Amino acid sequence: MNAPVPFAIKICGLSTPETLEAALGAGADMIGLNFHPKSPRFVTLERARELAAMARGRTAIVALIVDWDGRRAAELVEALKPDWLQLHGSETPDETAALRRVAGRPVMKALGIAGAEDLGAVAAYRGAADRILLDAKPPKDAAFPGGHGRPFDWSLLAGLDPAQPFMLSGGLDPANVAQAIGLTRPAGVDVSSGVESAPGVKDPARIAEFIAAARKAAAAVQEGSQA
Ligand SMILES: O=C(O)c1ccccc1N[C@@H]1O[C@H](COP(=O)(O)O)[C@@H](O)[C@H]1O
Predict the structure, then answer these.
(1) Is 12 a catalytic residue?
(2) 90 C-alpha vs ligand 1 centroid, how far in Å?
(3) Is 27 left (phi over 0), alpha (psi -120 to 50) or beta?
(4) Does 2 fall in a domain?
(5) What is the total count of domains within the chain?
């Protein structure tokens, strides 16, 4: 039997040393650096290297990319040395497996969920991705494919194979994360907008509140499943 993976809390879209330090101090397990140019959380490689140097050895560093090819991803890995790649575009299972191979890093594949039919994609990525991240589907006219602060209907996840681990994202915040964890029992949670005071502006107090609430709810689920 595989060893259980510890519950992971990821704070995504960090772009300043101060807010990164807030996430590290509050105990984030993963931090996300966003390389999608249309995102309000976009960081240059230079800024990302500065932040990664602060974070290395204290948390897992995740580089978020959207529909990149393998050569570009491998160059980013060489320059930044992230622990993970987060693929948040329309990468197919084959492209996901190829990116993982070429870049030599574990990959977290984000899948957009709006209805029960979207859950079918999850099985297709088994073996291609190291983690599945279930996010709300972006609005149709959206300029970027994630980070819109919108939740999806969590009750849809009752239709998922209970043996399938996943991380949950999409519209999570300090006030709803405990309910989301209790209902869906994810292997981790990921947040961006819900810990901001404005798009792209992270709020240290909300980061700390989010991490404390998620940690407490995950511990309660764990205790409940052991009882
Ligand atoms: O945050 C962004 O700007 C972003 C841009 C492009 C792709 C993904 C992005 N963020 C990811 O989206 C989800 C949900 O974010 P939110 O909490 O609803 O704002 C999360 O996994 C982020 O990593």
Answers:
(1) yes
(2) 14
(3) left
(4) no
(5) 1
